[in-house]
Amino acid sequence: RRHLSNAAVVDVASGYKYYTEVNATTHTSSGNAKGYTYVLDKELNSFGFSWSPRSTITAANCNDTNNSYSSVKFADGYLETNASINQVGEYKFEVIDKTYTSVDSNPAYMTHHTGANYVSASIPDCLASQSLVRSNNPYSTTKYPTTTFLNGCWISSDHNNTDLPSATKSYTEYKSYKLTLHPYKFDLSTVTPLIGPANNTPGNGSYVYMESVANDNNMSVHLNGSVKALGYNGSELSNFVNGCFAKSVDINLTKSDINSTTTAFRARLHTLDTSGNITRTVTSDMNQTNGFLTLMSTDFVKNAKGAVATRLNLNYDRSITTPLNPKAITYQKYSANCSTPASCRFNADNVSTKTTQGSKELNTTIRHYYGHSTTTLDGLSIRHIRMMPEVQAP
């Protein structure tokens, strides 16, 4: 339990282990409850992450709405552990002991309820499946309170002691943590540079012919692969999907300066579904050293479970009236970041403002040719023949 008057939201990373201390306190003080040495079995109790969306989402759009609980052991009212969950979304970190008061609520354990001081072994002394604490103290006036005055049977991390007499009251309120889980990283390991219609792997001296990507994607440099949201431990984050907890992601390509003010250098991004069909296409001018394109949250479809397959085509526009000399471009780094960094900010690695990022070094140089020269036709001169793509000597 934590002592808070207002439980603020805490931003953490999926798959990252956070050191956690928990005190089981007494009702009248914040001290440990000595003698509370007890195992909370996850099959019967709640210790960990409870699915608790605060945002406006549709649960049917999510792949995983389960709680994630662990079995733990308290020793004299205290435990320490590492807590983590392999998912994104909004949760509560809560502790609920549902079994400790069985002697007061389960007739099978209430056989000692005999004599004048008990009503019946079949009538519980607390409210089942609740952690309610009454704001008054009925025991001062009622020998045996009716259910109207009973407190809950569950020992919970959401708790207060407002029922204590005002003369001795030291008001304490405990609340479960409200958590937002974010991806720790974007994995770009499958993004691969390829060139030309045959999708060849580039090497020394590799080249493509200039051609507008709006007209021909094949005659270009390709960067094909997936952008995948992952946890710190590499876990798949199946709720990073449209309508659940996906965010828009900016794709950034760092490259050498193209040194051209007359001809546009463009990128054409295709997103694909899990069957390989193109779902969206966007074209962007990338004449600057850095170029941005954006994956929308809608691109993260449910059955892809936190990943988007992409094809990125890169080339110069080509005009028959504006020939260009060969251009060598070094494609340096491919990276992904949340479009709104604050929406992917979390505390990890001793940094309270860390954000979800990913990158892959490319360091691939490819020449872009306007056309090529023909062989000597008359032994004296070079003639230039226009082909497809239209050809003119550099």
How are the SSEs placed, and which strands pair?
Layout: E1 2-3, E2 9-13, E3 18-23, E4 38-40, E5 46-51, E6 68-69, E7 72-74, E8 78-83, E9 89-97, H1 102-105, E10 155-156, E11 159-160, E12 173-175, E13 177-182, E14 185-187, E15 192-195, E16 207-209, E17 221-230, E18 249-255, E19 265-272, E20 278-285, E21 290-295, E22 307-316, E23 327-338, E24 345-348, E25 351-355, E26 357-369
Parallel strand pairs: 2-13, 16-26
Antiparallel strand pairs: 1-12, 3-8, 4-7, 5-6, 5-9, 9-10, 9-13, 11-12, 14-17, 15-17, 17-22, 18-21, 18-23, 19-20, 19-22, 23-26, 24-25
In short:
The protein is an all-beta fold. It has one helix spanning 102-105, and strands at residues 2-3, 9-13, 18-23, 38-40, 46-51, 68-69, 72-74, 78-83, 89-97, 155-156, 159-160, 173-175, 177-182, 185-187, 192-195, 207-209, 221-230, 249-255, 265-272, 278-285, 290-295, 307-316, 327-338, 345-348, 351-355, 357-369.
